[in-house]
Amino acid sequence: MDLHAPLGQERKGGHRRKRRIRLSTLSSVAAGLALVGVSAWTALSPLPLSIEAPISLTPPAAEPPVLAEGTQRDTTESPAAGISASGPRDGANVRRTTTADGNVVTTFSPTSRQGPVIIGATNTQDPRLAGLPNEDLLEDTPEGRLPVVSDTGLRPVDYYARPWSGARGTKIAIVIGGIGLSQTGSQKAVRDLSDDITLAFAATGNSLQRWMQEARRKGHEIVLQVPMEPFDYPNNDPGRDTLLAEAGAASNLENLHKAMGQITNYTGIMNYMGARFLADDKAMDPIMRDIAARGLLFLDDGSTARSLSGDYAKAVGFPHAFADVVIDSQIDSQAILAKLDELERIARRNGQAIGVGAAFDETIDAVAKWREEAVARGIEIVGVSAIAAD
Questions:
Q1: Which CATH class is domain 132-386?
Q2: Which of 68, 94, 104, 390 has CA atoms 20 to 30 A from the CA of 242?
C-alpha cells in the first residue's frame, strides 16, 4: 500500500508491479534449476564434452615407397643392398636401399641425357617410336653406332623384341632373310608379310636403314645377318667383310662391327652361310663373347650340324636359338608349303619351332598364305626372340 496516496485511492499500475515481481522470481528459480540440471548431467555423463585425439610419442611408421609400374621391390636384407630402377631415357637414376630396420630409402640422382625425356618408358620399345633407335643402347665407334647394354642393364634383345602373349600354346617363329639384297624382294617382304614374321637384314645389302625403319614401323622384329665363311669359300662367297676362320680375332671383330653398324634396332645376329666358321672354336670365341656382351641373341640357321654356337651360348650365357627347318631349300610354292607343314608338326610336338627362308617371291607368298591358316588352327606366330633360350 502506498502511504502517501489519498484514502480510498490506489496508484495506477500497482497490480502490474506485483505481477512483474512474481514473474521475475519465477524466472530466477527456473534458471537456477536449469543450471543445476546441466551440472548434474555433465557430472554423470559417461562421455566427455569434447573428444581429443590421443597423443603418441612414437613417430608413425614410414609408408613403403610407391614403385613405378613394372618395377620390382628390393627384398634384400643387407643394409647396403639396392637396385637401380631407372629405365631407358627416363632422365634419372633411381636407387632403393633396404636399411637394417626394414625401411626402404629411395635415392634419385640425375643422369646426363640429350633430347626429350619419355615418361613411363618400359622395357620394350613404344611402337610409335619403332623406327628410331634407343640412344641408351648405342655407342659410337669407328665402325659405326653399335649396340650395347644400357647403364641400367637393359639389353637390345629385350627392348627391340616383338611382344607376344606369353601363353603356353604352340608358337612358331618364321625368319625371312636376305632383306636388302633385292629391292623388289625387300619391298614385297615388308609389304606382304604379316608383322609377326621376323625379318633378317643382310649386312651386305643396300638401303638397309630405309628398309629397317619401314619394317620396324610396321611392327616386325628384325635380326642382322653377318656373312661367315662356308667350307667352299671363296668359290661360294657370302660377300664383303666375311668373317674367316683363319683370320685373327682383331680382323674378325672389325668386320663384325662393320656389319653391326649398318643398321640399328635389331634383337640379334644371324649367320649368313658360315658352315666352316661356326665349326672353328678359336674363330668363334671372340665373336660369341662380343655378341653376348652387347646384349644380343644369336640365331643359328641350322644349316650345319657341326656348329658350336649352342655350346658357346651355354658357356658364355646369352640368348640363342637354332632353326628347325629351312623352308625354301626348294624354290617351289608347294614344296615350301610342305616344309611349313613339317615345321608345324615339330612345333606341336615340342611346343615351339623356328623356320628360316629367304625373300623369294615364292617363299613370301607361301608364308603369307600358310600363316593365315596356321593362326586359324591356334598357332601363335612370334618374334624369334620369344623362342631364343636365354
A1: alpha beta
A2: 390
